[in-house]
Fold each of these.
Amino acid sequence: MSEAQLVRIDSTTWEIPATARADMRVPARFFADEEILAAIRGDRSLEQLQNVATLPGVVGAAVAMPDIHQGYGFPVGGVAATELPDGVVSPGGVGYDINCGVRLLALPLSESELGERREGLVHSISREIPAGAGKHGVLHLGGGSLDAVLKDGPQALPGVRADDVAHTESEGRLDGADPAAVSERAHVRGRDQLGTMGSGNHFVELQMVQEVMDAETARIFGLAPGQLTILIHSGSRGLGHQVCTDYVRTMDARLASYRIHLPDRQLACAPASSPEGRQYLAAMAAAANFAWANRQAIADGVRRAITSVLGRETAEATRQVYDVAHNVAKVEEYGGRRVCVHRKGATRAFPAGSPEIPAVYRAVGQPVFIPGSMGTASFVLAGEPGAMERSFGTTCHGAGRRLSRTAARKRIRGGELRRQLEASGIVVRCPSPKGLAEEAPFAYKDVDRVVRVVEDAGLARRVARLVPLGVVKG
Amino acid sequence: MYRFVEHTAELELEFEAGTPEGVFEEARRAFEELAGTGGGEIVERPVALDARDLPALLAAWLDELVFLADTEGLVAESATLALEGTRLSGTVRGRRGEPRPLVKGVTLHRLRFAQENAVWCGRVVLDV
């Protein structure tokens, strides 16, 4: 892509016109300031966004958030809407970790009230929640109960709190989920992984509300300065990974029969109305429901840890603020068009008034959580009307990587990073020093800058800034 | 020979060998380095894979290694493989343990399996 092909639309919006490449069906549009733009241009993410703009049935524009970075097929931070019934669905546009997402819990306690029990709480959380891939959870699901989870998500788990379910995107259950569309291999991978965190950038973080930018919305979300929160980042584990693998392979083999030509094989797709498209959407919904159940089981583990360190009353009074997906495809309507919105490392951000938002939040907009890098801040945002007009109801999902894992490891060793974090008062639990180094704060963009761009673009507004007190890494 | 290539978010791997079978062996060695070997019991598992072309077969081979590590804690320390067209069959042998759970999926992005001069080359991007 040449300089001339990049058009600045306004202070935060950039566009590569559809004429830039013969195979693009719509423009590629993204949100950035100059510094973020420079980082974006350092890898292949804009080429990948242009590739997304070639998908059959894509409408409006292929859109990317300021945390965009190079992925595979879709860039991370990418959004694409394909018109139904015959626009395509692309499993790679959701990713391997189907319904990877974040859940925020708010404790009825301040950082000062926690006092010296901080380290004990972080250690207790690390004991309750298995980290790393292949680790077994506390729940083993046989065939029948696993299928119930695939169909109904957290609502299939024993003793689940009604207020947790109500404060989850789509109430933790996507319609149309079909366990029969999920392969036996995926079932095998998922049956004892519920309640496990996984690896990579997954974590459970103990935080404090450092600053409130929108006092009324923060009050409605149940957040106040100094308050303790816990942010959970995980997904659908091996089950979701296998679902994506299975359907990328299936659709890759069927491309010719649908006369679909793609610039990247990982964009493998099929018309949403085709047998392969319908099967994938049914399997993806099942994996998404599994992921919400997984974060529910992790939240249950966090409450057990709170019980053991702070007492049962504190655990019971720990509220779920919300739970949002950032790797998923959903059927939504924009401008009278029914579309399949692929969000790959991007978060739904519906504004005030949306019937999709829990009634208690409907006056202020959907809560969105933006984890920063380990050791830096995270943000609570609220969806804004601009998201519906400009990004298919979507905002960013994190800070976005700017350095490879190898580059991060070359700069710092895990042990040194642990010492630095602990010197700044952050308790760290991580099974792998190597994994810790790969997630070093400098490997990511500046999260404050990323959320300022989405606020300036009118996609979401800042509600509160959270800072870490302790982190349990996957 | 295998090597890791810079990628912002994921892991890109390149392989070179004198034979197509050698590319599969290099991929196994790379995965062993990523996952680490366990100290548990030695087990063998049969492998029978089929794909639409050689690049897809390379991805399917790594899929299989990820699956064994995720479900059995098994990291293949050796493999006896026969390649016929786009079919790969044989046995993998390794120890059970707690492999590093890094790889989520084997993508088709920038996937490659081809002969260049006398060298067979492969490339794959892993979602981590």
Amino acid sequence: MPSTPRTLLDKIWDNHVVFTPPGELPLVYVDRHLVHEVTSPQAFEGLRLAGRRVRRPEATFATPDHNVPTSDRRLPIADPVSKQQIDTLRANCQEFGVRLFDLDDVDQGIVHVIGPELGITQPGMTIVCGDSHTATHGALGALAFGIGTSEVEHVLATQTLRQGKPKSLEVRVDGTLPPGVTAKDIVLYLIGKLSTEGGVGHVIEYTGECIRSLGMEQRMTVCNMSIEAGARAGMIAPDAVTFDYLRGRDYAPKDFDAAVAAWEKLPSDSGAVYDRVEIFRAADVVPQVTWGTNPAQVTGVDAVVPDAVSFADPNDRSSAARALEYMGLEGGTRIVDIPLDRVFIGSCTNSRIEDLRAAASVVRGYRVASTVRAMVVPGSGRVKRQAEQEGLDRVFREAGFDWREAGCSMCLGMNPDTLAPRERCASTSNRNFEGRQGKGGRTHLVSPAMAAAAAVSGHFVDIRDWQYK
Amino acid sequence: MQSFTTHSGIVAPLDRANVDTDQIIPKQFLKRIERTGFGQYLFFDWRFLPDGSANPEFELNQPPAAGASILLARRNFGCGSSREHAPWALADYGFRAVIAPTFADIFFNNCFQNGMVPIRLDEADVDELFRRATAAAAAGGQYSLRVDLQACTVSDDAGFTRSFAVDPFRRQCLLEGHDDIDLSLRHADKITAWEADRGLPALSG
Ligand code: SF4
């Protein structure tokens, strides 16, 4: 008898439910547990107090990224509290036998950049991390989601998670990507359409010609921001792009061909049914710029800032009014007329080598506007080395960008890289919440190319009109 | 874990949608390595003026919310960062329940780990609660609700009663104050068997 067609999510889920105790939530096995310094200290402390150990240290990987300074690594960390958190992670990893990519490790970086880059992330796996952007890893066909610190402790102790099965949401993007439009624009556009809570309770599987045509790193950009649509996770079925990306990476399976044969069975069967389906057209997407204080408050670069009164829903209207006030913007202002003080290229959304190449190609031969301070923060030590080999650091430096060490940096400003009140920033990161990049700071989310062009011009410009040198 | 059976308390109305965890507990307070002491920083950037004094405009600083232990908010509460510091801060400040039309998933799960009940009610019911809270405030008083996790109901003294849905396992854990890890470790043999079945090797690299 033919079995019922299953989705990618169904298959990974079925492969990982260890046991469902009667009347309880299933115990779902976790293949990889990624750990960083901010959401783990209390979990390790909990283990210690209860006299427990880490069940599978070899499936657990840690790196400091949120607090780390992005200036000279040889200097001591100035902020004593940041230092304590990083020291605590180091001590915990030592005590519990967890592999740590420490500050002086050449492979240190943002946890969601180094996971795929080292081949720790693989198709068909369940991956968790005490961090909402864990969805990034879904780009390789894994089921990857963020958890709270109590759950981090639970995974450390049991290598499982208590979870009900999420619903599936197919987000299909048909057609080919128009010139000048990038993965970041697609995902911002999708969030604008789905809303910040459109994906709550669901795992998004991105499908369609447009998604299939994206390279591995662009797929990561799309999956990364799934949480901004409220989704538990985002995923893309593995294919040749995925396998080519993984081949030869440090932690990739030794018998790679056997692994590929298993991974090829993962994509959703034809006829598999999703709980919900949303369909979009790539041709409708133009380069995006957020104007508000959540990522769904977004519009095309060729548009104007909306008036709060234009929103029919009362919640949306009051949110927009608050956002415009915080952002210091008036409805009707053309997006391209918004002047900028700062530009940040980095974060787990857009700090990989392809992102830096895209930004550098815009910047090449130009200088950063005199009114703008701009910085590039590579996502990992590897990305930084690769960029330096390609001479991208020189392109950025010669244009007047700051070229920094790897870390989260001004994505959330837990280290010294922050916006001052009222400073306006074009940022390639993922959240434009009030105060996210510094108290009172004003963040506009854009793609790396759009950020680079804004740095040169001092205001937003439509990248589709850019004169590349 | 702190158990939860019934709780009666004053309602703090926070008439905002999409309250994200960056607002609930701003990043500068995430550097602590303890679970406690976050209440003083709850909603820090909204609650305090730049000089450190209480911002009189902020809902939690106004008389109707004094001593509140039930937070009432609009949809998509707790979106954004997974930081459990957000429920730690709410619980440490004294909240035992949060009522909203919808919650972000990670925040919703995190609440249960901290003796706090996230309660989803219909948008219309939440509207009604805001109306009742506003009316009580206009009359110079406060508005109280009673949450009963046994019966899964929220009610006031003036005829408002609604039931809410909660996962039976999460509910049981809260009622009995179970430690999740203890419960799961009871099935350690199943986990070991599952691993052995798959011959999980030590990782290469
Ligand atoms: S880069 Fe930003 S979003 Fe990504 S993990 Fe770091 S802080 Fe979180």
